[in-house]
């Protein structure tokens, strides 16, 4: 792991995470990129050094720190909305504070579909004064589990988007996995535990596309022997979810978790089972990858003392985590009461000709980043490009966004929507037909589901700047499935002074203004 003040070299090198050798776009030459760790309150200074040379893939880059609010450092948010790309041979210092967040986050390229080629990794903010630490009471919280899709044979497709989307052929857990057609003995990730200890595991879907049903064999329902004869199943709450998307939630027991691209969960795992090897499973919603045979879509949970062998365990998880059972531990700021929001938006999805639309408009990246348009004198959101994709918001308003279920059904789902610069309250989750204004789950990626009911979120505008809202299936973002919230445009230039190096990323554009 690397700390909050670091260089991060971005380079092309060959890796074989599933046994096939292919070129990737990689942070420090590894997949996933190195874990970045810091503490709540830290100043992060991450100097991204672009050493990309492979001309058949994108050679520019920019990195988004997914889930971090970037309050007064909108320019460090890393999407093309807020910066020009870093050219090959150049570097750029992302210098930002994390004053009030702790939990599980990640980082990824936000240029085209570049992160699918490898530029993605986990980022964890520890809270040395975690007010809830005694609730979890864990012995160890160092384990991070990343779930990623990988396409061994797609290297040249991945950075030059075509529709339909390229299809993954392997699930990589902590950067290792077996593909449908690759070597059957490709190494799998091993997660080590000691019997009798309690662990906080951090699960991160650094996925380009699939969602996963995640579970660990033997750690859901467990058999207990009574009278030496009768086996009955006793639920021991061995897995308890405690965090969603960097927000602490009250403990809720589950056997399995459906996790969508961009989402994170922490759960407590009680290592109370026999010393043995157990399958860790992540089933993607990819029809051609729908089994665990031969260790596909799998990793290994190994108790200390168990043989260096693959598990023989086999069990099924029953009790899947429901988003509606997540209750934030800290309801401050209070969720908006059930009155009319200040701003009430309904988003209708569409798809035609290989492009997605929101309320009739496909997001086409502007030639000048939205933030630069603002700093160059645009006074209101209506001046901002791309037209039809920028929604102006005033400061200190409650904004409600409803993803229209019928429209989701029309194009097919689910679509995991991510908002930059904020968390939001999930007033209504996918598949639920009631609203929760009292203690709704709070997170930064919500699935719109397969469309049985509207999905509704609310957030407060407290963070001046342009912020992306988009589908986190990277092919869909590339196909225009996004809008931009331009929050408090008039205050951005003073709330958010940019460093000179930021201006230098956009030499051509600056000359035009
Ligand atoms: Cu994790 Cu705009 O993305």
From TrEMBL:
It holds the Pfam family Cu-oxidase. Keywords: Copper, Disulfide bond, Glycoprotein, Lignin degradation, Metal-binding, Oxidoreductase, Repeat, Secreted, Signal. GO terms for biological process: lignin catabolic process. Residues 16-129, 142-222, 235-306, 364-489 form the Plastocyanin-like domain. It is found in: Secreted. GO terms for cellular component: extracellular region. One of its GO terms (molecular function) is copper ion binding. Its EC number is 1.10.3.2. It catalyses: 4 hydroquinone + O2 = 4 benzosemiquinone + 2 H2O. InterPro entries: Cu-oxidase-like_N, Cu-oxidase_2nd, Cu-oxidase_C, Cu-oxidase_fam, Cu_oxidase_CS, Cupredoxin. Gene3D superfamilies: Cupredoxins - blue copper proteins. Its cofactor is Cu cation. Belongs to the multicopper oxidase family. This is laccase.
């Amino acid at each position: 792991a690397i700390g909050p003040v670091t260089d991060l070299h971005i380079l092309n090198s060959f890796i074989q995470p599933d046994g096939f050798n292919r070129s990737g776009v990689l942070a420090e030459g590894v997949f996933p990129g190195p874990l970045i760790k810091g503490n709540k309150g830290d100043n992060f200074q991450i100097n991204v050094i672009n050493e990309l040379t492979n001309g058949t893939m994108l050679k520019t880059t920019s990195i988004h720190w997914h889930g971090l609010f970037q309050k007064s450092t909108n320019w460090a948010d890393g999407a093309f909305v807020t910066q020009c790309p870093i050219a090959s041979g150049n570097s750029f210092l992302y210098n930002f504070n994390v004053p009030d967040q702790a939990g599980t986050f990640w980082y990824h390229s936000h240029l085209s579909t570049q992160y699918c080629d490898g530029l993605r990794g986990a980022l964890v903010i520890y809270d040395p004064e975690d007010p809830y630490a005694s609730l979890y009471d864990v012995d160890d919280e160092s384990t991070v589990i990343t779930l990623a899709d990988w396409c061994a044979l797609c290297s040249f497709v991945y950075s030059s988007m075509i529709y339909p989307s390229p299809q993954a052929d392997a699930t990589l857990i902590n950067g290792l996995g077996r593909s449908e057609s690759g070597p059957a003995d490709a190494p799998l990730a091993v997660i080590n535990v000691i019997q009798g200890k309690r662990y906080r595991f951090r699960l991160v879907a650094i996925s380009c596309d699939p969602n996963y049903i995640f579970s660990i064999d033997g750690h859901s329902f467990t058999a207990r022997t009574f009278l030496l004869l009768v086996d009955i199943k006793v639920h021991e709450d061995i897995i308890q979810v405690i965090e969603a998307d960097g927000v602490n939630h009250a403990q809720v027991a589950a056997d399995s978790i459906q996790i969508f691209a961009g989402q994170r969960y922490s759960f407590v795992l009680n290592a109370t089972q026999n010393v043995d090897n157990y399958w860790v499973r992540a089933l993607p919603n990819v029809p051609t990858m729908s089994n665990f045979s031969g260790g596909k879509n799998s990793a290994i949970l190994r108790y200390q003392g168990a043989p260096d062998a693959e598990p023989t365990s086999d069990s099924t998880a029953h009790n899947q985590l429901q988003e509606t059972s997540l209750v934030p531990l800290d309801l401050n700021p209070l969720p908006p009461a059930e009155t009319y929001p200040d701003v009430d938006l309904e988003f209708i999805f569409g798809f035609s000709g290989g492009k997605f639309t929101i309320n009739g408009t496909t997001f086409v990246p502007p030639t000048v980043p939205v933030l630069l348009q603002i700093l160059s004198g645009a006074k209101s959101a209506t001046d901002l490009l791309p037209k039809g994709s920028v929604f102006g918001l005033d400061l200190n308003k409650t904004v409600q966004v409803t993803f229209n279920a019928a429209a989701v059904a029309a194009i097919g789902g689910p679509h995991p929507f991510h908002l930059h610069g904020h968390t939001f309250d999930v007033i209504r989750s996918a598949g639920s037909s009631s609203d929760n204004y009292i203690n709704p789950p709070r997170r930064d990626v919500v699935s719109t589901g397969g469309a049985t009911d509207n999905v509704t979120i609310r957030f407060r505008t407290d963070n001046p700047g342009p912020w992306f809202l988009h589908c986190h299936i990277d092919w869909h973002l590339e196909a225009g499935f996004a809008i931009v919230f331009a929050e408090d445009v008039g205050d951005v230039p003073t709330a958010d002074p940019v460093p000179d190096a930021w201006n230098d990323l956009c030499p051509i554009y600056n000359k035009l203004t």
